[in-house]
């Protein structure tokens, strides 16, 4: 997944200054961004009001889009550094290719997890023969300093653990752990990602950790999270200090729970790179332009994505929220 903005703003994230140590309810408003050819996403992280939730540093929600007569998602080869990408679908398919030689179709409720480490490149596209609807989320996880230069890798997990709560709640564990169920996906910081389905008439309380900060993204339906009704495509930041999360739905609804221990390090995120300094980001941009470090994606029908120009000022980490 990529940030295709040709004038990307730098997002300075991380650090503990702006983490709420108590429960809060902070509604995050997304902005529409074009992703490749024909796909528009709602970007919820980073934003002016909130830039990280645990190690989660980038969240796009898209669809449901009718692509029956369209090519669907078409994201050319592009680089990543210092992060993991998480592909999560409710409807449709995405074909992943990367510079390691991976070729994998990711389908609904399957985990496509790419660890960029020091450097990787990949492309994403709807298969030539694809389902009518495309609906999902694309997310990044910032790698901590101790692991941000690991060797790149790609994981695909078609079977994920799930737990059922009382009253029509089911939680599929994407990353981390929920109520004793542990995802097979590799994580480098204490965090959680879970897909929640709530049947109509559900009233339930999901156990959570008080040392984690959390946010909930509404994928479909119109559920109540901690008493606040959320429309599809909206995200609610919840802070820390909770032991359970009240959930209610009058109609069938789908949510994503994102959380983790607040990310202590300050990072600089620009375009498709997560680093720590201006010089590191500038070198990554130069290396992508020169070729070599990020490898080559074979099989995509089209040119790779060119890097946008760096902003005129220096890139500096300045804090979690603004």
From TrEMBL:
Pirin C-terminal domain ranges (all copies): 194-294
Domain Pirin N-terminal: 45-141
Domain of life: Bacteria
Pfam families: Pirin, Pirin_C
InterPro entries reported in the protein's UniProt record: Pirin, Pirin_C_dom, Pirin_N_dom, RmlC-like_jellyroll, RmlC_Cupin_sf
Family the UniProt entry places it in: Belongs to the pirin family.
Name used for this protein in its record: Pirin family protein
Lineage per the UniProt record: Bacteria, Bacillati, Actinomycetota, Actinomycetes, Kitasatosporales
